[in-house]
Batch of 3 targets.
Target 1
Amino acid sequence: MKISKEKAVKNWFSAKEAAKLSELTFDMINYLCRHDLITPSNGTKRGRGTRRRYSFADIVLLRVIAKLLLNGVSPLRLKDNLTALKRRELEAKGLLTTKFVVTDGFNIYFQDDGVVELLSSGQIAFAFVLELSKLRDEVTANINELKIA
């Protein structure tokens, strides 16, 4: 059975496609690459006329960057955290297994199953998150049960 090109899953994306998918500008992606903050998974040779190709994990990382910038994380703090991420050799692939990226506007944290890790230092703390809407629903259900009984 032959698979047509239209149905095949795309493994690599151009810089223009990465910009569109990540909601960053093409210039911002060039800036991130030029300052060695982002390294495309394929096509890492530098120079004029050389194509950079981005993987799905790279696009996810670019999208996270876009969201952090949009929500007030300063470019300088972002640069510090991306440098730390690169030093730890997690880069984009680390985001494929991480459940949450959390920020206080200054620091960036990864959160997985009750463990919060400060990205810049790797310091780990244990934490849990209570979803208050579920708690409110539980209390309301308990109150309704009391009224019925």
Note: The longest helix spans residues 132-148.
Target 2
Amino acid sequence: MENRMTTIELAKEDQKFSIAHFTIFSKSNRERLHGHNFTVSAQISAPVSDEGMCFNYQVYKKKLKDLCQSLNQYTILPQNSPHLKIEEEGNQLIVKFNHEKIPFLQADTLILPITNTTVEEFSHFFIKQLTSDKKSLKEHMIKSLVVKVSSGPGQSGTSQWSSESVGE
């Protein structure tokens, strides 16, 4: 069979999460706490085998669904923001921002290794999670991965990964 590449697009109904967040614009300006229903889609490029398929993409559908579920119905705080300081006080997290102290219940909050709670950062977070299993990427001969996170119609951020950019 000829050597050819294809791209599988995964955009299933269960690839979504609902969160509360606020975007930080500067050291003194942020949005009010509010929520979004985010959707996630992925494009995965790999060679087509002699059997007429790339790989069992159920693996990546499950990974995307599980990642979405792990974020669902939480308030998300950015761990790497230079403008926030997050402290634990009993069962609360106290966020210090521009002379404000904003309390959150720990049980309702996730702190992610991101700089801001934006679609740009969420798409990068998903890429990092999906590409952390190098063995799986190699086994499935994945050449590139694109993740798009949308916070509503017409508003999204996209991040990309390529095996060429990491020297594989």
Note: The domain at 5-162 is CATH 3.30.479.10 (Tetrahydropterin Synthase; Chain A).
Target 3
Amino acid sequence: MTAKDTQFLAPDGLVDRVALAIATLGPAGRMPVAPGTWGSALALILAPWLFTPLPLAWRLGALASILVVGAWAASRAEEILGETDPGCVVVDELLGQWTAFAPFHLFAGFGWSSSWTAQTPWELLILFGLFRLFDILKPWPIRAVEQSVPGGLGIMLDDLVAGLFAAAAFIPIRLFL
């Protein structure tokens, strides 16, 4: 076990423990393989109960809150772990995945009807896949944001942009499904 691992397992003080818990989304960031995908999967699972039932203005407020708190937690995690953009930090996946979901009412079962309602699990999986695709490939301007904005804010912003790309790419797919 390295010093970084020990520091990760036993951060100094309550604030550091809270920052790491937020940054890693609890156990999602600690998965041994593909923690980013696990973070996105957790966001997918939580969205129908914590995010998509909200009115659009509240969803945007939730995204802004996640951006601010996530940027703080990701910055703190970088300091604690002594790494730039540590793989275990997956709060950015929550922001990006929910950004992709934000324009769409993801489950019609909540009583909404709209042409923007994603009504099948396949549509949810498509949005999930689109976000992961843009987050992994990082086409311009996603990579430019990642490289030009340092710290926790940069960690969060590239996934925000990837989520916007995923939502935009889903619109024509949704129109033809």
Note: The chain has eight helices and no strands.
